[in-house]
């Protein structure tokens, strides 16, 4: 007699995978809404309920252990980790009004995340051509200035260096605990979403094949 797991997949496996996929979205919920902790705890309790349902359906002395039990245990561990991280994120948001200084390593991490996660603006083709031509003209003017006036070129390079230092220091001062929490929220969301999608896809393929 051939086994038909369609009912089990539709009633148990698919809801668990869908629940796992919505788990990382807690880091997108605005902090001011006050629903982040309740959201993460609700998902954690839902996984606990599903683990109880699955354990009731499975034999007590099943050997080897069902793959769904391992998957549920992994998702439960991720949910616990998300709840803990979410609590620390709320504490980070609350530090906005405090005078506690931000560590230098944390500032470096936020600057790195800003540089790599900043969305790129793509304009029309004509605007790109105009900007490209203007950049070429500026480069040619700089080269002519370097050849014609070495002293002025040194002053210009010094001024450019000072402006770069001012920009870097302004970025350092602009980093607050709120921006730290926003940047780390994006990092946690991306990391947990990738882990959840990869593990869920691997488990679903192992069940259906």
Low-confidence stretches: 121-133
Number of helices: 7
Q: Compute the CA-based radius of gyration.
A: 26 Å
Structural class: mainly alpha
**Average pLDDT reading:** 75
- The rounded distance between the terminal residues' Cα atoms is 18 Å
Oligomer: single chain
Please summarize the sheet with the most strands.
Answer: none
Q: In one word, what is the shape?
A: elongated
Order of helices and strands: HHHHHHH
Strand elements, count? 0
| Share of residues in helices | over 70%
Q: Estimate what percentage of residues fall within beta strands.
A: under 5%
Describe this structure in words.
Residues 13-136 form the Neurotransmitter-gated ion-channel transmembrane domain. Keywords: Membrane, Receptor, Transmembrane, Transmembrane helix. This is Acetylcholine receptor subunit alpha. The chain crosses the membrane at residues 7-31, 37-56, 68-88, 187-205. It is elongated and about 60 Å long. It is 78% helix and 0% strand. The chain has helices at residues 6-22, 36-57, 67-94, 104-117, 125-148, 150-174, 177-208. The chain has 209 residues and is mainly α. Among the domains are: 1-100; 169-208. Helix 4 packs across helix 7 (177-208). It starts with 5 loop residues before the first helix and ends with a helix. The protein is built from seven helices and no strands.
